[in-house]
Protein: GNAT family N-acetyltransferase
Organism: Paenirhodobacter hankyongi
Amino acid sequence: MPANLPPPDAVARVRRFNRAITRAVGALNTSFLDRGRPLGAARVLNAIGQGRSDLGEIRAYLGLDSGLMSRLLRGLEAEGLVATAADAQDSRRRVVHLTPAGAAEFAEYERLSDAQAAGILATHPDPGALLAAMDLIGSALGRDRITLEVCDPRSPEALRCLQAYYAELAARLPHSFDVSLSCDPQAEAMMAPRGAFLVAMSDGLPLGCVGLKGTDAGYAEIKRLWVAPAARGLGLARRLMDGAEAAAQGLGIALLRLDTNSALPEAIALYRATGWTEIARFNDDPYPDVFFEKRLAQA
Amino acid sequence: MPANLPPPDAVARVRRFNRAITRAVGALNTSFLDRGRPLGAARVLNAIGQGRSDLGEIRAYLGLDSGLMSRLLRGLEAEGLVATAADAQDSRRRVVHLTPAGAAEFAEYERLSDAQAAGILATHPDPGALLAAMDLIGSALGRDRITLEVCDPRSPEALRCLQAYYAELAARLPHSFDVSLSCDPQAEAMMAPRGAFLVAMSDGLPLGCVGLKGTDAGYAEIKRLWVAPAARGLGLARRLMDGAEAAAQGLGIALLRLDTNSALPEAIALYRATGWTEIARFNDDPYPDVFFEKRLAQA
DNA sequence: TATTTTACCTGACTTATGTCAGATGAACTC
DNA sequence: GAGTTCATCTGACATAAGTCAGGTAAAATA
């Protein structure tokens, strides 16, 4: 990809964007205050509502001092929104959960956030373009917060990726693409202990995936490598492949294979650059026309 | 324009964007704190550095209480960064300006901001796409902060707009477009008292323009109506036209005319929707092929 | 000229947030 | 089982930010 030179007013435009979002974030935050709770307490309630229960984890996530965390939590307890208990395994740790009243309050914050988001979309003439721009910027700003997670290939996050993957294949391959023809995986082959399915998550949004599919033929296959358009160029495909290889090593797999199509040159370039060697066709699948193999060092 | 239905995960994507920018704004703000001054004081210093000198104006701009403002100012004075004096006309008011030390400190904040902006651009594989996305979002979030300003048509803001306008005409008109052929305006005809040139500004970025060009033939012409691609659909063209008509009324002009090209259907639709009537060709310009007129109520 | 309004200042508060030095009790290590 | 490490809590303190009730002097108004 050629390095596009930024235009001369580039810095001014980024700074104008910064001013606009600073103002927008201020508005977002003050709207939370309308529920009569300081922002810190609202953030803790939100973290618990998202399913975080370990106190230390919440503290790390929000970047709070232990004393401050303790006080905020006591405040929420006094309001009757959360309840804490000692961890069953390690009674130094505390676990927190929402009471029914807390769950209702959390739902109210969620409703507020959803309404705000919908409001931004509703006033714009082209929500699709706005969303694409938001995805692009969200990925750029949050690139070092993208995490790889092991998922069930039937989970909603995985399905979102796979759907986009199939749609893109259909658009890019010369003949129309029908997933049922393509040696469709049993989900179990892409789950421990036979394989794995990794999804790259950025703040709850799935941005890419890769499948490691165990076979009975002495090797595992890499399948369904995909990166969202908004996140391309950030090195995510490589991270996903590294993650898949690490998962394979963890499962004691020594040999990987994959098939791909010559209509996907970026993927092929990546494979060549990361130690894969082209081999002869190893299956009868009609769509792939290029085949690779990589031998892994034993863990 | 068809109303694009947003995809089902639209709200989740907006909220993910919100989380990403909230985090980015936090990082931006904490970096300002590295200069050892609380955010409030830094914001006041910044407002003064931007050229605001009237104390009340700064207070309104930053949304500060008068007591708080006063205290922040005393702090900056104690640091030797600003100096205040009574206003010459109305000695209840105070005017503030930077001392040399204050100017140096302000420049340092500017350098920090520029470096941050450049840093965001530098790490992205496609700065052009990132900037386009930022412009789009900046315009969407700041749409109610877009102001119309009367400018000299030779000012840098005006020239940025005109350059983009000519580039777009060249791209959209079937024959190549040469500005020298097109009855190029004397700047004076687009300035008071003969006419006006309006620029739509959003946080320092020009997003659109329109010229009101006086003639000696008993009417004024609307020229060079342009809106930046990132700001289209927000009703800006209409605001610019309204502004131009108001300026005409202020100058005692009773009749407006304009010429345009059938390759610009959005513009023509706007004219038809806002009280313009199509008339016969009234000049020999080679590019326009559609002509309009509008009679104004006297102010 | 007397009264009211305006722009700013001052002092006394409150709240949110953050920091730090122990205290407590549980878990781990030798 | 004694010492150490760890997670959390508590109290004391600091700072940033905001609010509010007067106070002062100049300007506007009657």
Remarks:
- Chain A has a mean pLDDT of 90.
- The radius of gyration of chain A is 23 Å.
- The beta strands of chain A are 82-86, 94-98, 147-150, 196-202, 205-214, 220-227, 255-260, 277-279, 290-295.
- Chain A has two domains: 10-123, 146-295.
